[in-house]
Design a protein that fits this description.
Strand content: 35-45%
CATH topology of one domain: Methylamine Dehydrogenase, Chain H
CATH class of one domain: Mainly Beta
Number of strands: 57
Low-confidence stretches: 9-20
Helix content: 10-25%
Structural class: alpha+beta
CATH superfamily of one domain: YVTN repeat-like/Quinoprotein amine dehydrogenase
Radius of gyration: 32 Å
């Protein structure tokens, strides 16, 4: 991926395509109104408007000579759920201590005395209900939409050079010399402060999607932090101080500006591309709303435009590159065939998976099949800017500012799921997961909650209650194969523990089981339910995660582990296709790992009930892990003959004996109940026996498990075998030399002779 920049070679007042009229003085700030229209302000007191479609540049207004603009920020486009197609007004801060609310046409609606000395930055919150300004006087002030002072959030002895709102508009991040400070708006809330750079911090930005913070300093470094102030990435020192940093809206990329320098970086910090344009220092960077291009305010009076091109998508034998804004190149690496795909508008997002390429442009969505690149299916989009595309085998999901839309690959709208307080603008691939029958979305308002929808109807699954965990959830992923009733979701919480649970929930609470600790990243396989993740220093593959519900002790035997030190710190799993896993290291390099193909074949045999083939495969491979997986799969599918062979092969003799005893039971119900007991589901086993009127067996099960109270309760309720329960209890107490103290047992013992 790289930036394609355009800049005028020498100042001319004639316009070429994207070659730009110059301001006479330093350009201090830029801001986009739509994806193709930009406003810039300069020390020559002019506000210019650039239209990229018609390549026209016009002067909007000439400000009074005493106003030197410093920062501008457009009023947010989506307010109160209503989405405007373009911004209508902006705030402009200036060196005379005022901020000005200016309409799109250049009329100054209001000027407000805000600070002593220059107002160095001004930012609207995401809802457009409040404005924060910071100044040379060291004050941080919050203003209402109309420009009335609400509160002075902070006062300090040094100028505040930059400010940003937190994702929920409840906190403000600002600079203080070499320190960064996060201060909540509520009084008496805890303030977070840390030393971020060795020099003065000139710029900071906080992204609402990934919750990460950027900072730029005069120590010539840029850094990435999480919202707790932990350092995730620090760059090497540059030649000159970093003068600007800015997140792209979707939080996947950010840009860094310095003297004659523009850099495009991944959210984890590593650099995609470095440009050396002749710009002077780039004082301000603004990303367009669709995240395809950015503009920079340059110290020599230029405005630089840069488009993100050469993004790449890979799947199996196809490699696709965005070579121009409206052109993709498809390369089939098997036969070296190359196809060019042309689009009417510029490409905003794309996704390649499951044999389909889905591309969204500013107005339309194209669906290509990898078998035929010539005839895409095309349909119009309701909203312009798609922020996320997710694919499953049968359908795909588009996320835009208006909602979630599930489409079939034939272009038919299947459903549009909704939940209370849904904010789609802050969803990313870690928060949404899609499978053939289910859609899961993590709630941003309450991070402990996952909403689960039926894909075809868009209605909440099961009893309609969302899945709730005890701590905040960081990343979610649905498995892709198997029956709907057995659909599983894996998620990582804030403590980096990995949990798995079933999505089907009817009344009874499904167990959420922990299967890993210190997990950085995870991915399900695309063709079988195999899960991989990176745990602390180990790369782990869970060949059959469902084992936790069948035979928990068997889980460690179904894992494949490998030392992960070669991936350096903070690696991310990009994809898990077939038996190949792609991992991106912290420095941006990709590593490809291959795992054994046999577990996937085993999954395939079991899903089509070919038990003999499965046993034959395990005998051929001679691997304990395979036998352990087969044992768990056989128990889950209640195939006792295969389970017996598999358990015998891994030396679990006690379990083999128990399975043999199950086979000898007379009735089908009691066999089923004992299989449930084998998996530790005592409650379900008891319910099954009671439904089949096998009262004595239900009582005996509880006696064997020493659930004395429940055994007595069942005996009394069904008026049978009370004496048997008391006899077993008495023998149990005698063996341990104890006296009866339980009141209920004493009460019934009086009336019954044993």
């Amino acid at each position: 991926m790289r930036l394609k920049t355009s800049l005028l070679k020498e100042p001319k007042h004639i316009l070429y395509f994207l070659n730009l009229i110059q301001h006479k003085e330093l350009v201090s700030c830029v801001g986009w109104t739509t994806a193709d229209e930009l406003y810039s302000c300069s020390d020559d007191h002019q506000i210019m408007k650039w239209n990229l479609l018609t390549s026209e540049t016009t002067r909007v207004v000439k400000l009074p000579d005493d106003i030197y603009p410093i920062d501008l920020h457009w009023f947010p486009r989506s307010v109160g759920g209503k989405k405007q197609s373009h911004a209508e007004s902006f705030v402009l801060t200036s060196s005379d201590g005022k901020f000005h609310l200016i309409s799109k046409l250049g009329r100054v609606e209001k000027s407000v005395e805000a600070h002593c000395g220059a107002v160095l930055a001004g930012r609207w919150n995401y809802e457009g209900t409040a404005l924060v300004t910071v100044g040379e006087d060291g004050q941080v002030k919050i203003w209402s939409k109309s420009g009335m002072l609400r509160s002075t959030l902070a006062q300090q002895g040094t100028p505040v050079y930059s400010v940003a709102w937190g994702p929920d508009s409840e906190k403000v991040l600002y600079t203080s010399g070499k320190h960064l400070i996060i201060k909540p708006l509520q009084p008496n809330a805890k303030i977070l402060q840390w030393k971020a750079h060795d020099g003065l911090i000139s710029k900071t930005d906080w992204n609402s999607v990934n919750d990460l913070i950027l900072s730029a300093g005069e120590d010539c470094k840029y850094k990435v932090w999480d919202s707790y102030g932990r350092l995730l990435y620090s760059s090497q020192p540059h030649e000159y101080p970093i003068t600007s940093v800015a997140w792209a809206v979707d939080g996947e990329l950010f840009a860094v500006g310095s003297f004659h320098t523009l850099r495009l970086c991944d959210k984890t910090g590593w650099s995609y591309a470095l440009e050396k344009p002749n710009t002077g220092s780039i004082f301000n960077i603004a990303w367009s709303i669709d995240g395809t291009q950015l503009a920079g305010a340059c110290g020599n009076g230029h405005v630089i435009f840069a488009h993100v091109v050469e993004q790449r998508w890979e799947w199996k034998n196809f490699e696709i590159t965005l070579i121009k804004r409206r052109t993709m190149e498809v390369h089939n690496v098997i036969n070296d065939a190359v196809d060019l795909l042309e689009f009417r508008d510029r490409v905003i997002k794309a996704s390649l998976n499951y044999g389909h390429l889905v591309v969204s442009t500013s107005l339309q969505c194209y669906v290509f099949s990898t078998k035929n690149w010539n005839t895409p299916l095309i349909f119009d989009l309701k909203e312009g800017t798609v922020s996320l595309i997710l694919q499953a085998e049968r359908h795909f999901l588009l996320v835009d500012g208006g909602g979630l839309y599930l489409y079939s690959y034939e272009g038919r709208l299947i459903s549009s799921p909704k939940f209370p307080g849904m904010r789609t603008d802050i969803l990313n691939a870690q928060m949404v997961s899609l499978s053939n029958d289910t859609l899961a979305v993590k709630d941003k308002a309450d991070e402990k909650v996952i909403y689960i929808f039926e894909a075809l109807s868009g209605k909440p699954l099961g009893d309609g209650k969302p899945l709730t965990h005890k701590t905040e959830i960081v990343e979610i992923a649905l498995d892709q194969k198997g029956l709907t009733s057995e659909r599983k979701i894996a998620f990582i919480d804030k403590n980096r523990d990995l949990y798995i649970t079933s999505v089907k929930r009817f009344g009874k609470e499904q167990k959420i089981v922990k299967i890993g600790t210190m997990v950085q990243t995870l991915a399900w396989n695309d063709t079988s339910n195999i899960l991989c993740g990176i745990q602390d220093t180990r790369f782990t593959v869970w060949y059959y995660p469902n084992t936790v519900y069948v035979d928990k002790d068997l889980l460690p035997k179904t894992l494949y582990e490998k030392d992960a030190s070669e991936f350096s710190k903070n690696p991310q799993i990009v994809r898990f296709v077939g038996n190949q896993i792609t991992i991106r290291r912290a420095d941006g390099s990709l590593i490809h790992l291959n795992i054994s193909p046999y577990p996937a074949i085993l999954h395939e045999y079991v899903s089509s009930s070919k038990w003999e083939d499965a046993v034959r495969l395990c005998r051929f491979v001679k691997d304990q892990t395979m036998w352990a997986c087969l044992a768990a799969m056989a128990i889950a599918n209640k195939d006792m003959a295969t389970a017996e062979i598999a358990y015998a092969s891994i030396g679990e003799i006690d379990k083999v004996q128990y399975i043999n005893s199950i086979k000898d039971l007379p009735s089908r119900e009691s066999r089923m109940a004992h299989i449930l007991l084998f998996s530790g589901n005592t409650q379900e086993a008891e319910t099954l026996l009671l439904q089949a009127s096998l009262i004595y067996q239900a009582i005996q099960v509880n006696i064997n498990l020493y659930n004395w109270d429940r055994a007595l309760e069942l005996a009394v309720k069904h008026k049978t075998h009370v004496d048997t329960v008391l006899a077993y209890r008495q023998k149990f107490l005698e063996d341990f030399g104890k006296k009866e103290t339980n009141k209920r047992f004493l009460q019934y013992a009086e009336g019954v002779s044993i």
